Amino acid sequence: MIFSKACEYGIRATIYIAQQSLNNKRPNLKDISKEIDSPEAFTAKILQQLVKGKVIQSVKGANGGFEINNKKMGKVKLKDIVKAIDEDFDYKICVLGLKLCSELRPCPVHHKYKHIKAELKNMLQSTNLLDLSDGLKDGKTCLRF
Amino acid sequence: MIFSKACEYGIRATIYIAQQSLNNKRPNLKDISKEIDSPEAFTAKILQQLVKGKVIQSVKGANGGFEINNKKMGKVKLKDIVKAIDEDFDYKICVLGLKLCSELRPCPVHHKYKHIKAELKNMLQSTNLLDLSDGLKDGKTCLRF
DNA sequence: ATTATATCGGATAAAATTATCCGACTTTTA
DNA sequence: TAAAAGTCGGATAATTTTATCCGATATAAT
Description:
- Two copies of one chain form a homodimer.
- With 145 residues, the first copy, chain A, is mainly α.
- Chain A has a single domain (5-137), classed as Winged helix-like DNA-binding domain superfamily/Winged helix DNA-binding domain (Arc Repressor Mutant, subunit A), CATH 1.10.10.
- Helices cover 50% and strands 4% of the residues of chain A.
- Chain A is built from six helices and two strands, in the order H-H-H-E-E-H-H-H.
- The first copy, chain A, has helices spanning 5-22, 29-36, 40-52, 78-85, 110-126, 129-137, and strands at 57-59, 65-67.
- Chain A has a two-stranded antiparallel sheet.
- The longest helix of chain A is centred in the N-terminal third of the chain and has 18 residues, at 5-22.
- The first copy, chain A, is elongated.
- The two termini of chain A are 17 Å apart.
- The relative contact order of chain A is 0.18.
- The interface between A and B is large, with 47 and 47 residues.
- Chain A binds a DNA duplex (30 and 30 nucleotides) through residues 4-6, 28-30, 39-42, 44-45, 47-48, 51, 58-66.
């Protein structure tokens, strides 16, 4: 509802890759789509977008797969993942779809929604991959079903 | 992004009808889609759903159109409009698309998102049509562009 | 070098959402 | 009672999103 399916898969995939990278492993497409329970071919497309967007790195050939530079992990934000997949994602957008909605010329829901929008923006800008992959290793959080 | 286009049109249409009803006017399809700048035929479909969902009433024939019972206006919530159009809209849904995500078995974003979800739920359940149509009459709020 | 294992990239298909068209029906007004 | 002004409902089309397939290409291991 807030994210597209592609984005959902993309975020879940990235979190899994992050956690595996921290473990010095390099999962491939099959591993990933199995782990996050997503359609393999569709996931491949999304991973390509994430590579283009420099959120993850790919390694071709035998023993290849996808990985994330461990040192950069704290700097990759949820926003970066979303932007890599839905280029025109925008949390500034009006909840009723008005192009010109603003503080000065608000839609009827604007003032009721702006706090939510601000929190959403904050979450996307501040949450990083370390935060997200943290709960995974000890099974506190899940990526599928 | 959070609502479908159909929902956006539906909410805007309902707010306009509400404000006109308070003024003892009864706009028809053409009036409405002109006022909220939406495709006429598509808007017709959405208005039908709102009638079925008892959010608005329709009056056929010459001088007909759409209206809302003034006395019920304070009881019609944003949630009711959304539910009439996206039957399976659900603010409880997991932000990463997991069916079983919960407090006990959270996805990695769950705890970061749950406050936002709660506010969203609150907004949808508490905001009524009087709140929404209020700013319209004196031009404080807008419904198009 | 050859082979096995991967990603990459383009074409295509399926499904959902958004949008249009039009004939049927209903109600008011003249 | 006829005409005009509306909504209703079904069929259909266009667009976007989701999903699949497969040949090309790159890399590691043997």
